[in-house]
Design a protein that fits this description.
Length: about 170
């Protein structure tokens, strides 16, 4: 049954013959009969080729050097991407955004741990001499670091959006 349906889908012509001729495409070249239950359905099968595609063809087509087998030369679009990637290595914007969120949570958590006198990571207790400097370091450096990472993520996202707009032809 599946083979019969596949044949019928392949055989079905969705373009009228007149439109195919106007476009310079030959008519379907064969027809077949498919049986569904007790009813035969006739479908036309064809190869869509441009008119005169076999004629006036150059004897030898020029193959670019990068497309030849065993060629180590990258295609033109890969060369441009390799140049852009070698110039700068930058993380995607969501990495900066995630780092910003984690840093902000750690910095605010450090303030809450200091106020509630909870042990730092369950290791450094409030009576330890390193308790206040460690939490202070996390709080004082964490908030500005989080802000920097957030601004960096916005900057990278804007750069990626502009680059995509250039590729799409909007800029």
């Amino acid at each position: 049954m599946a083979a019969t349906m596949a044949i019928s889908l392949l055989c079905k012509s969705s373009f009228p013959a007149k439109l195919l001729l106007e476009l310079g495409i030959r008519e379907p070249i064969c027809s077949s009969s498919v049986k569904f239950g007790s009813v035969f359905h006739r479908r036309r099968v064809g190869a869509i080729t441009a008119a005169g595609s076999g004629e006036n063809r150059p004897e030898k087509e020029e193959v670019p050097s990068w497309a030849k087998p065993n060629s180590d030369e990258p295609p033109p679009w890969a060369r441009q991407e390799a140049q852009n990637e070698s110039l700068k290595m930058e993380f995607p914007f969501y990495v900066y955004l995630l780092a910003s969120a984690v840093t902000a949570i750690a910095a605010i958590g450090s303030v809450f741990e200091y106020v509630n006198q909870n042990p730092v990571f369950g290791v450094v207790y409030p009576d330890n001499i390193l308790y206040a400097p460690l939490l202070g370091f996390f709080a004082i450096t964490g908030i500005p670091s989080s802000a920097f990472l957030w601004f960096k993520s916005v900057e990278v996202a804007n750069q990626e959006a502009e680059e995509q707009d250039r590729r799409d032809g909007f800029l």
